[in-house]
Amino acid sequence: MLDSRRLNLKNKRFATALASIRNTQKAIMISVENLKVEFGVKPLFQDVSFVVNDRDRIALVGKNGAGKSTLLKILCGAQKPTGGNVATAGDTTIGYLPQVMKLSDDTSVKEETRKAFADNTELQRRIERMQNEMAERTDYESEEYARLVEQFTQAHEQFIMMGGENYEAEIERTLIGLGFERTDFERPTREFSGGWRMRIELAKILLRKPDVLLLDEPTNHLDIESIQWLEQFLVQGAKAVVLVSHDRAFINNVTNRTLEINCGRIEDYRVKYDEYLTLRKERREQQLRAYENQQKEIADTKAFIERFRYQATKAVQVQQRIRQLEKIVPIEIDQVDTSALRLKFPPCLRSGDYPILIDSLSKSFGSHKVIGDVMMEIRRGEKVAFVGKNGEGKSTLVKCITGELDYTGELKIGHNVQIGYFAQNQAQLLDEQLTIRETIDRVATGEIRLRINDILGAFMFGGETADKYVKVLSGGERSRLAMIKLLLEPVNLLILDEPTNHLDMVSKEVLKEAIRAFDGTAIIVSHDREFLDGLVSKVYEFGHGQVREHIGGIYDYIRKRNAGSIQEAIDRNIAPTQDSKPEIPVENNRKQQYDQRKQQQKKLRKAERAVEESEKKISQMEKRINELDQLLMKPEKASDMTLVTEYTELKRTLDDENNRWLKLSEELEQLK
């Protein structure tokens, strides 16, 4: 009896272990062994081995040019390696989103997205054909009719298992999640920009629900709302993900593993990106110590060889040291980025207190109102963000500010304002006949000319790349070059429209630090939360034709909006209190808000004047008291009661005025 129980327990343990092994084997989606890729003399990778498992969320990181995009192409089979093997588990499906792809222009948005369900739609058409055939035929007792019914039943069951007609709802949910409106569904794809058509391709890939998603910079053309939706989709719905992204917040929220390409090798860190940075720093410090010890050993060995090379009594020891030197495998240190590089904008004129004042500005294209009744005050030195879905008017308002578009309402550009504008098409304005170095050399002045090589290196134009002509550069390279050019021009109002789309993390950090140290005013149109974090102190949200002001940083704004749904946060009006009147119409409400802001500004200016006047009085009284002190120190004036009385009254008045100044200053701080 006891032996029987032990045998059963042993069998159960064996079955559990076997199941565990099978599950582990099944979990491996892609296996890479001894991968080697060569484009020139030096291999891009060599001896690279790793696996992609089910539920892995992998961030692929490394310097630009390290081979991240190449590795993704190899994983999906679009490119062959020089050596090694890439094996995909039997029925594993792969979805690949490259940075640039050929886009279709001959269908509507929904029709194009529906191609993701080509198998479903073909099966649905087959079912409809069989259904029509059964309705037309009358030979109900024949074997052919029975086979047709059986085929119809099997096909219908398969169609239900594949989700039936529910894919239409999935298509709509995905398109809306990626920023499309329902009114966009039937519009031809050719009416949309390249960025929006990339969203359609991303929607198709996500809807196919592949086992492994390979995404190369998926957030480049997404706004904040769409990025947050994609984050949730990848975390909750995807099986395995390998992604390249320069959006630090995005990869931290999505990934649980980091593969770093460095020095032609891959280091596997089974942690999020932020934790990887800490571990990488520790690892590099260890490498550096080992490298220094090895260099000391090499130097000592070479010194011994040189010292005793020609002494016959030391010949054996010299030959031993030579052999030791030949066997040493040099320790490679991880490539160091140039994030310590600091750029500083050149000196510029001081602008007025308010570089931008906007009052009731509206802009329409035909019958379509993009923005209406915009009110905005941007003070000198402020760094503000424009956020919102694409198409809600961010770039439109920027073009109104720069004078590219006309408008109704009032827009005042302050005294001595010099605008530096980086637009999405800024790269097209570069001189194609110049090299990269010549382009920068023409705008660099002063000591910055001595650091041109460092600056170009920080923006991925180091070495021989700096001598390439602008005409042979890709769109992303031109955008980076236009950004450097702007950084070196003397402006005091900086307007950047999606500046980080083609920058890696190092370049973004260099740009962020330059803007943070910038003495002037900055308006940044961006969806990159990590870039905006700690940089802006005010957020303007664009949505449904309105522009709403949020005081605080980008994460303060996101937290406020996440209290309800994002759409509700855009549309929400201030709820009335129990003692307040019923909610007034929107137009009246806007006017009331405008009047309240005007009143607030009026109170602020009045308080500032009161503080200034009080400070002037205090200064005058202190000056007079000093004069009286000098007079009363003279013997002949010491008993002059007129001076003594004036001195006593003045001291009392000064004390009262100091108290009044303190109160006025506190009131001013509260108003601010």
Automatic annotation (TrEMBL):
<feature type="region of interest" description="Disordered">
    <location>
        <begin position="576"/>
        <end position="600"/>
    </location>
</feature>
<dbReference type="GO" id="GO:0005524">
    <property type="term" value="F:ATP binding"/>
</dbReference>
<dbReference type="InterPro" id="IPR032781">
    <property type="entry name" value="ABC_tran_Xtn"/>
</dbReference>
<dbReference type="Pfam" id="PF12848">
    <property type="entry name" value="ABC_tran_Xtn"/>
</dbReference>
<protein>
    <recommendedName>
        <fullName>ABC transporter domain-containing protein</fullName>
    </recommendedName>
</protein>
<dbReference type="GO" id="GO:0016887">
    <property type="term" value="F:ATP hydrolysis activity"/>
</dbReference>
<keyword id="KW-0067">ATP-binding</keyword>
<dbReference type="InterPro" id="IPR003439">
    <property type="entry name" value="ABC_transporter-like_ATP-bd"/>
</dbReference>
<feature type="domain" description="ABC transporter">
    <location>
        <begin position="356"/>
        <end position="569"/>
    </location>
</feature>
<dbReference type="InterPro" id="IPR017871">
    <property type="entry name" value="ABC_transporter-like_CS"/>
</dbReference>
<dbReference type="InterPro" id="IPR003593">
    <property type="entry name" value="AAA+_ATPase"/>
</dbReference>
<keyword id="KW-0175">Coiled coil</keyword>
<keyword id="KW-0547">Nucleotide-binding</keyword>
<dbReference type="InterPro" id="IPR051309">
    <property type="entry name" value="ABCF_ATPase"/>
</dbReference>
<feature type="coiled-coil region">
    <location>
        <begin position="113"/>
        <end position="140"/>
    </location>
</feature>
<dbReference type="Pfam" id="PF00005">
    <property type="entry name" value="ABC_tran"/>
</dbReference>
<dbReference type="InterPro" id="IPR027417">
    <property type="entry name" value="P-loop_NTPase"/>
</dbReference>
<feature type="domain" description="ABC transporter">
    <location>
        <begin position="30"/>
        <end position="288"/>
    </location>
</feature>
<feature type="compositionally biased region" description="Basic and acidic residues">
    <location>
        <begin position="580"/>
        <end position="598"/>
    </location>
</feature>
